[in-house]
Amino acid sequence: MREITINDQTVRLKASPLSLFYWRTEFNSDLMGDFMKMKDIEQDHSKLDFVFLLQLVWVMQKTYENVKSFPTFPKWLESMDDIDLLSNQDMFVAVMEEAQAGFFRGGTRKQQYKQNQRKTSKR
Q1: Structural domain boundaries of the chain?
Q2: DSSP string spanning 93-107?
Q3: The dihedral of CA 79, 64, 73, 108: what is its sign?
C-alpha cells in the first residue's frame, strides 16, 4: 500500500491480483501487457503515456478502496479536475514502484535471492 497526493488530496493505492481483474473489466486489455509497453521508459521518455499512468492510479485506488460504488475511469478523471502531470514526477515514481511491488513480487524476490547468493559466494 502506498499513498500519493493529487491536488492536495491523499490517494491510497494498492496493487494486487484484483487490480488485474479491474483493469480487464474497465479497459478490456491485459494490465501486464500494457505495463510491459512502459518498460523502456527510462531510456526513451517518448514512451511515457500519461493516460496509462492515470489508469494505473485509478485501478490501484479502486483496489485499495474495494467498494462497488467506485466511479468508472472517466468519472474518476472528471473528479480529479486539474492534475499537473509534468511537475508531479514523485507521484508517478510512487505509482510505478507500487505497481512493480504488487505485480512483480516473484521477480523482486528472485533478484534479492540472487544478490544475497552473490554476497555469500564472495565471502
Answers
A1: 2-122
A2: HHHHHHHHHHH-HHH
A3: positive
